[in-house]
Structures are given as C-alpha cells and as structure tokens.
Specification:
Layout: E1 3-9, H1 15-26, E2 32-37, E3 58-61, H2 81-84, E4 89-94, H3 96-104, H4 107-115, E5 119-126, H5 136-150, E6 156-159, H6 169-186, E7 190-195, H7 197-204, E8 215-218, H8 226-233
Parallel strand pairs: 1-4, 1-5, 2-3, 2-4, 5-6, 6-7, 7-8
Helix pairs in contact: 3-5, 5-6, 6-7
C-alpha cells in the first residue's frame, strides 16, 4: 500500500522542515518520493538542500526554474510518476493557495489511488505565531480556503508553533490553546505536535489533554537561512 502525505500551511508554518523530516524517516524503511510544490516561498525551497538527499533513498521533484534565479515557477510534468510508479511513501510540500491549487489538478488521481487502497493524508501545519493563523478563526478560515483549492479535506493538524531558533516551550504552550479550539470547532484532530527535542520535551512535561497534542514529532533542523549557512560553511 502506498501512502501519500500532503502538507499545507501558511507561509512560515514550517512545512518544508517537516516534509524533510518525514521524507528522511520514511526512506529508512521504504522507497520515498518528495515533491516540492511550494510555489510561494522561494526563500526556503527543498531544492536548496538536494545535497541532504544523496544516498538516502529519497528522490525529489522540484518546480521548474528552482535555483535558477527565475521566480516564475511551473508544475513539473514528472509529478505523474508519483501516481504511476511503485513508491512506499509520496510526500507533497505545498506552499499557500498556489501550491494547494496545483495539487487540486491531481484530485482524480488521488481519488483513484484511495479507491485502490492507498492512504492519503492531508496535514495542516500550524504556526500560530504567523499573523494569518494567530487565532482559531483565522486558522480555520485559512484552512478552509486551502482545502477548497486543494480539493481535499484536511486529515489532521500538525501543531508547529515556533520562532525559528528562538523557539521556547512557551511558544508551543501559547499555540496549544489556539489549535485546541480550532480542532474542537472543526472536528479535525491534532495528530502531531512538532519541535526540537528539548523544546518539545519541556512542553510535553506540562498538563495537556493528549487528544489535542497527538504524537510528538521530534524535528531535526535541515533548512537554514542564508546567513547561518555563510557563518558555518563560508561562501
């Protein structure tokens, strides 16, 4: 059985980092395809870290013109291989409305895959520190819009409230109440809470309803801002 993992979320939600973690973990046990459909955020692209996938068993498809300096992206025709070839796991990283709309054109293929017994999961990655997800109302409005364009209903939330390297347990704590209320209103379960190990462990030590925490998703950080790369590796 093939599983499709589709990640949607607002700009800055952390989808790309989570997509990389999912892909590298999945590749340890099966054949994995990672598809970059982030048509909005040209600053954090999966294609910028192709080096990490060498010899891992992860194959990646990225938008045309990625890394070329041209910002007008197009959907690669080779995405068809996600449905036509024998993968264990296929992961889509969608960026905003445009990425969701790009996925929408594959609705019939996803429906056919599900009818054959494949699993399709659409996760909404939430960072409540972003302006468009800072309240339950905003979060749900954004999710409904992306669902409509993706032509697929969200399977569950991934709570990933963060402030990049400055993230503290208090960030997850503040985001917990917002995601909890959004889950209660929508009926969409919280399936994961994500973060770096030390931050996530500190948050999990507190008193929370497990129903609105889900599984802990410990993240390794693979995406770095340009100045971080420069200070560590040079030009």
């Amino acid at each position: 059985m093939k599983q499709f993992i589709i990640l949607i979320g607002n700009y800055g939600s952390g989808k790309t980092e989570i997509a990389m973690n999912f892909a590298l973990n999945a590749a340890k046990t099966g054949k994995t395809l990672l598809i970059d459909l982030d048509m909005i955020n040209t600053y954090f692209r999966l294609s910028d870290r192709r080096d990490l996938f060498e010899d891992t068993g992860v194959e990646m498809i990225a938008p045309n013109f990625a890394n070329s300096g041209v910002e007008m992206l197009t959907v690669p025709a080779e995405i068809a291989k996600a449905f036509d070839m024998d993968w264990d796991t296929v992961i889509f990283d969608l960026g905003g409305d445009t990425g969701a709309a790009a996925l929408g054109q594959y609705h019939n293929k996803l429906e056919l895959a599900r009818s054959k017994g494949d699993e399709v999961r659409l996760y909404n990655v939430v960072n409540t520190n972003r302006p468009m997800a800072g309240t339950p109302e905003k979060l749900l409005r954004l999710m409904e819009n992306m669902q409509r364009k993706a032509r697929w209903d969200v399977t569950g939330f991934i709570h990933n409230t963060n402030m990049s390297y400055e993230t503290t347990p208090a960030d997850l704590e503040a985001g917990y109440s917002i995601v909890k209320e959004a889950s209660e209103r929508s009926g969409v379960p919280v399936l994961y809470t994500a973060g770096k190990r030390e931050v996530l462990d500190a948050f999990l030590a507190g008193a929370h309803d497990p129903k609105f925490v889900g599984e802990p998703l410990y993240l390794e950080t693979y995406m770095h801002r340009d100045w971080d790369t420069l200070t560590k590796k040079g030009v």
